[in-house]
Amino acid sequence: MPEHLELQHLVDGDGDCEAASRHRKSSISRCRSCPYLGLMLAALSSLFFSLCSVIVKGLVEVNPMELAAFRFVGVLLPAIPIVIYKGEHPFPKGRRMMLLLRSFVGTTGLMLSFYAFRHMPLADASVVVFSVPVFVAIFARIFLKEPCGIFNVITVCLTLIGVVLITRPPLIFGNTVESLTDNHVETEHADLWGAVAAFSATLFGANAYVLLRALKGLHFSVIMSNFGSFALIQTIVVTWAIGALCMPRCGTDRLLVVALALFSFGGQILLTLALQMEQAGPVAIARSADIVFAFFWQVLFFNEIPNRYSVGGAILVTSSVLLTGLRKWAVSLPETSNIKKSLGVLAI
Questions:
Q1: pTM of the model
Q2: Count of Cβ atoms closer than 10 Å to residue 345 Cβ
């Protein structure tokens, strides 16, 4: 999965995460000078992560699994100095199996999402992968016994309908769809495995978030350093196993690979700062800008005009994600908050 969720354990809806509280207090002065700075940083991190997706789709000569390895360099680099500075134990007892499981699930999810970016329209793959927050409620109910009310059921149903519209299974839609901007009919040969990879990445991503909730007592740098180290090894092994382990051939490709790692690095840092300044709900809403960027890049760089089904599905999925983030924020507000009262059923 794109790793826009891997640090959200810093700010839990219950407000019981001590690390998040300390970070939030340390950033009060910055938030007062610019109250929307956290949201701006979250949106900027979306820009960086969406550019990573563009590079993955554009570098057709480099295997997506190899690109995933470079991507995880950007996850590992910022984590190592933070762990050293904080003096945290990089592999704490009692949490090792959980850390390994979280790393495996997160790595597999991102590898699948990279495959989807390569074999699906960029915006379609981004929308499906970004629907992770909606499915978190299901797995949190199964594994953590958290409540799953009617609101969660509705958002999951809307998301599933949106995913069906985006992936357009041939059994339902056939192979012909109408263009959004034209009246003629275009034939699209959808990559079924790309759609399967995108939806599988979403499920893996949702489980990764649930594991993060179980690990919320650990400092985020410990989780990121374990994740980055394990992921780098896993992606290199998988790339070697499929015979795709090699350096990019030309100078341009190598520069883009470096840019992929840098954009990943920048996106991680910006997301970390955003979550230190703002609650997870508003950050999740701001991160939905990723979908907007994906549609823009799809048309600009790849000349792929989204069809009516893609746009309709994107609206459903984006609405579900926005409502999920808004509800998480509303629930975390104090009972005396006027904003919580104005949000009505979302705050229940």
A1: 0.74
A2: 9
